[in-house]
Structure formats: C-alpha cells, structure tokens
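User: structure tokens for Molybdopterin molybdenumtransferase, please.
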Amino acid sequence: MTAFDTFAMVDWSGGNDTGKRPRKDAIWACVARAGETEAPIYLRNRVVARDWISDLIAAELAAGRLLMLGFDFPFGYPRGFARALTGSDDPLALWDWFEARIEDAPGANNRFDLAGEINRRFGGEGPFWANALARDIDGLPRRKTQYRNPFPDRRAVERLAKGSFTCWQLAGAGAVGSQVMMGLPVLCELRRRFAGQVAVWPFETLDRPVALVEIWPSLTLGAAPAGQIRDAWQVEQVARALSRLDPGALARQLAVEAPEEGWILGVEQMKTEIEPPPLRNDCFALPAGVEWTPVDTALAHLRDRLGPVTSIRTEPVAGALGRVLAADVVAQRSNPPLANSAVDGYGFAGGRPEGKHVLPLAVGRAAAGLAHDGAVPAGQALRILTGAALPEGVDTVILEEDVTLGEDRIAFRGPLKQGANTRMAGEDVAAGQVALRAGRVVTPADMALLSALGVSELSLRDRLRVAVLSTGDELVEPGEPAGPGQIPDANRPMLLSMLHRFGFVPEDMGRVPDDRDSLRARLDAAAERADVILTSGGASAGDEDHVSALLQEAGAMQQWRIAVKPGRPLALGLWRGKPVFGLPGNPVAAMVCTLIFARPALSLLAGAGWTVPQGFEIPAAFEKRKKAGRREYLRARVRDGRVEAFRSEGSGLISGLSWAEGLVELGDGAGHIRPGDPVRFIPFGSFGL
Ligand code: AMP
Ligand code: MG
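Assistant: Done. Predicted tokens:
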C-alpha cells in the first residue's frame, strides 16, 4: 500500500526537556495532506510528542485515512547488534529490549547508563561512545580514541549516504545515538497501543493504515532560510515533498530490502550490492610436514584458497578507470553503428575490374554525422568523407588521391574490390557481443571502448582497501630525528606507494612498538578500516615477533617458511576475518615478498583474478653461483641488451631496490650463471609498479 492520505514528519530529539520556549533542539512535527502542509508543531518533550502522535493516529484512523509517519532516526542498528543483544536478528525485538530498559521522564533519563551497561557486555570499550554527563560511566568511553567497536560502524544505508553520523555516538554535534535510544521505546509503545494498525518499514509489509518510516531530512535539504528554525522548516519540506510525490515514485522508494538494519526513505538502494562470503579460517594452512615450501607451492596455495572480498555495485562508467569489472560487459550498440567510409573519396556500388573507369558524379555529398539524403543511382559516384555512413547505392569507395576529378565526373583505374575502403557495421564489436570480461581492471582504452559501445552503467567492485602498519621499537617516523639505535620507518612509505600503484586504496595505520597490546589495538583498527592488512617486521618466531605471536593467539595463523631469497618466514593469518600478510622487516625482503606473494593474492582478493608477471629471457651481464633448494630474486636492470645485477645481494641495501628496474628470477635448482647466459628478467612494470 503506497497511496497515503496524510504524511506526518517528526524531527526527534534525544536530549532532556529543559524549558517552555520553542527551542531548535526539541521535537518538531508537520502534517501534510494532498500536497499542502499545516503549520509545523512544536513538541517540547517526548511525552508531549507521544501524546500528540497518538492523537493524530487515532484521528486518522477514525477518519479512515492512511497515514505515513516519518521519524528522523535509525529504526535499526548495524548488522549483528540485534542478535548479540536479544538473540534474534529481528530489529523489532531490539525495540522491545530498549523499551523494557529505558527510563524516560522530562528532565532525566538513563540513556548513558544503559549504553554503559550494554558496552560492559561487550568488553566495556564499545559499541557506544560519548557521554554528555559530568560523571563518568563505567564502560562508556568519552572519546573515540578510547573506543573499540565490536560491530560495524555504519549501516549499509549510511555507507551510501555520505555525511551521516553513526548511531553509536551518543553526544556531540550532530550525534544521533541518543535519539535512537530515546525514540525506539516511544515507537514501540505506539505499535502496541495501535496493535494491528501500524506497520514498520522496511521490516513489515505496509498493509495497515499507518506506516512508520525512517527519514533523514538533512540528506537532501540545504540550509533553512534565514530566521527559520531548521528542524521546523525541514519537517515541513519533507512532509510536503512526500505528499506531492506520485504513488509510483513513492512505491519505488519503499521497495527496499533491509530486514535487519532498516533504511532511510529516499536513499536509492544500489541495484546490486553483493557482499562476498567470508574467507575460511584455514585459508592459509599449508600442508604439514614440509620444511621449506617451494615458491610455486606457496603461490598455488594462495591461488586456491583466496577469493574476492570486495563488494559489487552498479555505477556510471565515468568512475570505472582502474576498477575491477564484476560482470561481463555487453555492447549496447555496434561499433561502427553503420557501414561507413574509411577514407575521403568517392563512393559507388560494386567493384571495378582492371582498366580505366569514368563515373558521373551524383549531386551532394556524405560526411560524418551528416547523412546523404536519397540513393546514389547505379553507375554514379558520390563525394564521401571519412566516417560518413554509406548512403543507399554505395558499398565501395575509391580514395580521392587515386581519382582524377573532372567537372561532373571522376576517372580512375581499376581493379577495385567491392567493399574497398569501407568499414562494415559492427566490424569492431557488434551489439550484444561481450566486449569485456568480468575481472578485468578497466584501462584508459576500455574507457573509449565502453563509450563507443553505448555502455553507461557497469557492475563494478569496490576498490580493495589495504591497511599498512610497521612494527618495531627501533622505528621513528620518516623525517623525524632518530636517536642511537633508531632508524626511520622505510617500509611503510614503500608499501603504501606500491599499493597505490597496484590500484588499491592504501590505509596508513602508522607504526606500532613491539608491544602486544598496542599491536592488538592497531590490528583491530586496521581490520575495521580495510579489507586486507599488510604488516612489516615481527613476523618471525623470536621474542619480539609479536605479529606472529598475536596471529597465533587468534588461532588463524600460519608461519610460511618459503624457500626464497630474499625473504624470511611470512606470517599469514586472519585477524577479525581480514587476511593479514606479515611481511619480513627487512625492506628488500618486504618488497620482494610483496611483489611475489602479496600482489597476486591481493589481486585475487580484489576480484581481478590471479596475476602472473610477464618476464622475458635476456643474456646476463653477471656471473653467479646458486645453491639448489630455493628460488632467488636479484635486483636487476637492463642495459645494452644485457641484464645487470646489483653489486651486492645484502638484504638491507635499500639503494639496490632503488637502483633496480626489475628482478632477475633464478629457478629453484642449482646453477652457475655466466655472462651471456639467458636469465629471466621481470621488469617492475610487469608487477604493476
Ligand atoms: P624484524 O623482521 O622485525 O626482525 O626486522 C628485520 C630487520 O628489518 C631489522 O633490522 C629491522 O630493524 C628492519 N626493519 C623492520 N621494520 C622496518 C621498517 N619499517 N623500515 C626499515 N627497516 C625495518
Ligand atoms: Mg622488529
């Protein structure tokens, strides 16, 4: 049911009632019918508001009118909260839960205490934060820096509606957390009082006379005109706009699926928002009993166990560069759309044999974008320019340079094949053909192709977000003074820039000392912000190797001892469901391991499939003896057709990374490479750098 008679919009408030004069942060409501609004109504506290709403519902029911009642606070919490608190995903069970516990009287209520009580159930650092009271509340952090949220920060709709506040923040400018807590019990009571007459959108079918919907006026409305109270003005605007909306448009806005978190009316639900399945806890488990895992085994393992973790949504083509296609792209139109001329010249029907030909010129000409009217008579030629659609009676074109032009005729020599110098409709791509495959990373050339093929919207994956953090007591921020025994953090700037070049979204999570609690907190924050986490340092099995220790503690960690040089053990694991690549601290090993192991894995996680860097064989300009049993990567560059290796293989020599333009890959077996022997060189460009 979507044809409502009455629209009443309410701007709620979570604060306490303190005075009698209309204040901007109390409750405002406005009623509209048949496109016209009544004057906004000031409701000084929630008790007054509840009574006013009850009277309105009763009056509308008595008059046999259908009522849409909107409130400007979330009807649900982010995924998982309802179940954690009530044992059920049903948001209406959460409404009951709050109603049973919230005490609300004008002048005082227990919302901060209840938030503290809820937080204590989850470890006492979240999900709620901020406290407007002078007294401290156990378990309720005052500031976000002291805060840890076991649930998602935002609902799906809030991730789409930029600029929204989260329902976890209870105080401070713009916070909505208190409104939700103080609003849901009132809605709950109304539902009970008018049992069977009220349906809550989008949790229930709207087949009752009253519909409760969630609105968010600030999302679409600008600033209120000078001198007007914003909330009063906003409820009036929204009530009027909804009552003027045609029922079909309103029905489309109401047709959303959000059974747990709820939705904001008017926010367009993405046509496809698909969350990929979570990774399995054992995704990094290597076969037992192998001392040193060969590189290819390790790679094959990553390739088998990992899959896309990024969400999919439909977006305009303009933002597609560098993004991963989530579905095959089908040409909406042919390129070229019509048969046309490939050159400037003269068009006619049919080929011509060897010898001299003279053809009279037809009147007019055909140019690109300017169709020729009418047919060209048989035996005549028409002036035609590059890109012009072939007019009726033309299937062959002679190049103007091959023609002698008379006053009203042309002469040229054959032979000329039928169809010469023309392009067939759809000879590039025909409408309906698959032009690009799912998993492709969109290139500048693809942007041209997509435009030519009339594609306006694409199913794209979100960019992969990759968090980077460095560990080590010895590290200082680059550019800051370093004391004795300290070194600047070199890995983090390197890894962040590499990720940027790979086309991912790097998230800088800073440096962490060799301290388990700090690292744990930082990993939590990284898991909240990113899809994948890269750490460097502390990945071995020593006393100060806290990355591996923590991942081990989390129960989802594997030490990968890979037969590769440079490289020490890699620590791979899941932290709060997010894959962690624990890279060696050594900058050379960190970079090589990122290129060889992390990059193809990240590409898979991003939905772009496994990548194999393209290398080529080229004569060596160096000599090297190599032991069997491990693969080696040398910092290398090509000069004068031969590949040079860096002067030293020392794995702390960052200048060698900088000197190099790629890597030489030496196979797992023993070898003695002499100058002139072919070796495999992989330019950094092939790794996407
Ligand atoms: P770790 O893997 O933590 O034992 O570190 C191995 C070596 O790499 C040590 O010499 C560290 O000082 C060095 N190292 C670790 N992290 C970094 C970093 N972010 N930048 C530069 N060097 C580092
Ligand atoms: Mg260290």
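User: Anything notable?

Assistant: The first strand starts at residue 6 and ends at 11.
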